[in-house]
Amino acid sequence: MSLIKKYLPIGLSLFSAAIFLDSLRYKFTDHPNTQEIFGRLDGWATGFGADGIFDKTGIFSQYVIGSAELVAAALLLIGLFSRFIKFGVLGNLVALGVMTGAVGFHLFTPLGIDPNNDGGGLFMAAVAVWASQIIMLWLRRDTLIGLIRKPFSLFTPVQTD
Fold first, then answer.
1. Conformational region of residue 55, where left means phi above 0, alpha means psi within -120 to 50, and beta covers everything else
2. Which of 48, 49, 72, 160 has the greatest count of CB atoms below 10 A from its CB?
3. Is 109 helix (H, G, I), strand (E, B) or coil?
4. What are 107-157's pLDDT values in tens digits?
5. Is the pTM higher than 0.85?
6. DSSP states of 14-63 as a string?
7. What would the pLDDT profile of 33-48 be if each residue is shown by its tens digit?
8. CB 106 within 8 A of CB 121
9. What is the model's pLDDT at position 1?
């Protein structure tokens, strides 16, 4: 069991960071699949008076979401070093937030679970990253609770043996 607690966070962090980093080539290059997804979401938002929030200059644009994914990936990778596990937990929270939005928009908007006709691969990746972050936060719950109690302790490295 101790091997699982030791190596599972490493594997889940690498997996999640890889998913995030791979998606950046689509978000930051105006790939047609990204344009389709964010265009469909923007059209949906327009229906209730929030037009433009998913547009290229909107607050939930592909660039904003991609930047959040880049930050999450960087924090997850930095958190692999035991001295900086607190940054990893922060990365878990950012990743969980981004993926909660992704899963929610896939399930509760016209986007659906297969917007790119890829068999739902994009949705399944989002769910896998989302679930991995919940597992990670559970495994690192003591560090998370410590950060909630003392948020500025983020800037104090963990002493390693």
1. beta
2. 72
3. coil
4. 999 999 999 888 999 999 999 999 999 999 999 999 999 999 998 888 887
5. yes
6. HHHHHHHHHHHHHHTTT-HHHHHHHHHHHHHHHTTT-TTTTSTTSTT-HH
7. 999 999 999 999 999 9
8. no
9. 66
What distance in Å separates the CA atoms of residue 23 and residue 19, rounded to the nearest whole number? Answer: 6
Assigned token pair, 45: 């938002």
- Name the amino acid, one letter, at 133: Q
Q: Which two tokens stand for residue 122?
A: 């994009």
* Residue 129 and residue 17 in contact, taking contact as beta carbons nearer than 8 Å: no
* Nearest in space to 157 (alpha carbons), one of 76, 88, 56, 98: 88
On the CB side of 69, how many CA atoms lie within 13 Å of its CA? 27
Q: Are 78 and 84 in contact (CB under 8 A)?
A: yes
Structure tokens, 153: 């302790």
Q: What is the pLDDT of residue 161?
A: 59
pLDDT number for residue 5: 81
